[in-house]
Amino acid sequence: MEDKLQDKLIKAAINARKNAYVPYSEFAVGAAVLTEEGKIYGGCNIENISYSMTNCAERTAIFKAVSNEEDTKIRAIAIVADTKHPCVPCGACRQVMIEFGDRDLEVIMANLAGDTLIKELDELFWGSVNEEILG
């Protein structure tokens, strides 16, 4: 992915982070996905007093894309938080990413200091539950 598009995705994630609803953890995360159609959808984490009902920023962004586009395919995702190192996605989010992206989906992990780490999804989530395993 070209640097300009990567920067645009990170900025969209930073912008989405501003809407995070995090009264319990105070850990705001923003994410932005790029679809095959070239559209960008942002999402933030949304907490609930019952922590099990919390939704991560990555899944919020992916679900927004899925609810707005027919046959959604995710090309890339950027994740940003105010952390010491680039923010990595949780296992649940990785499973959702594999559902709507390919193994080579570009995962751009960043922090507010500008540090980035870029990996393909398969590097982060080998052995995921997918059609190859179930089929």
From TrEMBL:
Stored Pfam families: dCMP_cyt_deam_1
Annotated binding of Zn(2+), by residue: 56, 90, 93
Q: Which GO terms describe its molecular function?
A: cytidine deaminase activity; identical protein binding; zinc ion binding
- Which top-level group of life is the source organism from? Bacteria
CDD domains referenced in this protein's UniProt entry, alphabetically: cytidine_deaminase
GO BP terms, alphabetized: nucleobase-containing small molecule metabolic process; pyrimidine-containing compound metabolic process
Enzyme class, one word?
hydrolase
Q: Which UniProt keywords apply?
A: Hydrolase, Metal-binding, Zinc
Q: Which reaction is this enzyme known to catalyze?
A: cytidine + H2O + H(+) = uridine + NH4(+); 2'-deoxycytidine + H2O + H(+) = 2'-deoxyuridine + NH4(+)
Domain CMP/dCMP-type deaminase positions: 4-120
For binding substrate, which residues are annotated in this chain's numbering? Answer: 45-51
Kindly list the GO CC terms recorded for this protein.
Answer: cytosol
Q: Does the keyword Zinc apply?
A: yes
Active-site residues (renumbered) = 58 (proton donor)
Instruction: Name what cofactor the protein needs.
Output: Zn(2+)
| Protein EC | 3.5.4.5
**Family, similarity comment:** Belongs to the cytidine and deoxycytidylate deaminase family.
The free-text function statement in the UniProt record for this protein reads: This enzyme scavenges exogenous and endogenous cytidine and 2'-deoxycytidine for UMP synthesis.
What protein name does the entry list? Cytidine deaminase
Q: Which organism is it from?
A: Acetohalobium arabaticum (strain ATCC 49924 / DSM 5501 / Z-7288)
